[in-house]
Write a structure and sequence with these properties.
There is one protein chain. Helix 1 crosses helix 8, helix 2 runs parallel beside helix 3 and helix 4 crosses helix 5. The chain is 29% helix and 27% strand. The two termini are 26 Å apart. The radius of gyration is 20 Å and the shape is globular. By secondary structure, the chain is of the alpha/beta class. It has 2 domains: 167 residues, 3-Layer(aba) Sandwich (Rossmann fold); 141 residues, Rossmann fold (3-Layer(aba) Sandwich). Strands 10-9-8-11-12-13-14 form a 7-stranded mixed beta sheet, sandwiched between helices. The protein has 8 helices and 14 strands.
Length: 313
């Protein structure tokens, strides 16, 4: 039955797709995905996918719009090649932060992207740590959302630290931080902050909880420009945390993020490879954990009709 399973990759993160295939013990599907000189994207599948169970791996990350269009065209290609079932494997769901109308005359881009993926031909979606839970409801097809929480918690459990506090970078991430704190048998603190308009910056205001003399682990779903991270590190330093670490699922690391992390007091930033981290961004203090085994096991279970939820029980 495993010979009916095919995994293909766009150009955004072929290393992750290869890692998934290595876990599954199958070769990566053969396809041409390239851009003409007029910037039109072309896809050609180089092997038979008729009546096969096909998984297309493509995070919607930098270059975001090109990654999205590549994904859509690959899904359409698989549909027109008569694949039996097409699963869009989207480790990072770009546009996920625009998930509601919180101002007049603004879009809900996360819903638009969901509609595009559905129309392109996906029969189901596999993703990791969505920015907002309601994004699952934007799809009228099955969505399996995995979490990197167990991967991150296992890494920190290996440190066997005492006097530990898990700190949510804002109130919105407090549930995830609470779950991590429970796994690490640590206390919980929350940073109250205010975002300034539509700019990629925020102002840390207050810390709810005790961090004095504690080793702090900051938690977020993604690190974009690292503005929230450095504000949180500054607040924890001011409140006399003994050491400061950080973790997230998605290392977007755009704009001044790398410079900010390099200059901050944070000792280590632990991320996963849902988004590729190129060489110039691999600081000594950035640790990248592989998400490939988690996605590979989920793909195996989807293909064989086993429970994906049982992975986290």
């Amino acid at each position: 039955m495993i010979d009916e399973l095919k995994v293909f990759s766009g150009n955004t993160h072929p290393a992750l797709a290869q890692g998934i295939c290595d876990y599954l013990g199958i070769p990566l599907g053969k396809a041409e995905v390239f851009e003409f000189s007029n910037e039109n994207i072309f896809v050609r599948v180089l092997e038979n996918v008729r009546e096969r169970d096909v998984f297309v791996v493509q995070p919607i990350s930098s270059p975001v719009n090109k990654s999205l269009v590549e994904l859509l065209i690959m899904l359409d290609t698989m549909k027109r090649a008569s694949a039996r079932r097409i699963t869009a494997v989207i480790p990072y769901y770009g546009y996920g932060r625009t998930d509601k109308k919180d101002q007049p005359r603004v879009p809900i881009s996360a819903r638009l992207v969901a509609d595009l993926i559905t129309v392109a031909g996906a029969n189901r979606v596999l993703t990791v740590d969505l920015h907002a839970e309601q994004i699952q409801g934007f799809f009228n097809l099955p969505v399996d959302e995995l979490t990197a929480l167990y991967l991150l918690s296992h890494y920190f459990q290996g440190k066997a630290w005492a006097d530990l506090v898990v700190v949510a970078t804002d109130i919105g991430i407090s549930k995830r931080a609470r779950d991590l704190a429970q796994k690490l048998d640590a206390s919980l603190a929350i940073i109250e902050k205010r975002r300034v308009g539509n700019a990629d910056r925020s102002e840390a205001l207050n810390i709810i909880g005790e961090v004095n003399g504690e080793r702090a682990i900051l938690v977020d779903d993604e690190i974009d420009t690292a503005g929230s991270l450095v504000s949180a590190v500054a607040a924890l330093t001011e409140h006399k945390a003994s050491e400061i670490y950080a973790c997230c699922t998605h290392p977007v690391l755009s704009g001044p993020a790398i410079q900010r992390i390099a200059q901050s007091e944070v000792k280590e930033v632990v991320v996963t490879d849902t988004i590729p981290v190129p060489g110039h961004k691999k600081l000594e203090k950035i640790t990248v954990l592989s998400i490939a085994p988690l996605l590979g096991e989920a793909i195996r279970r989807i293909h064989t009709g086993s429970s994906v939820g049982a992975m986290f029980e």
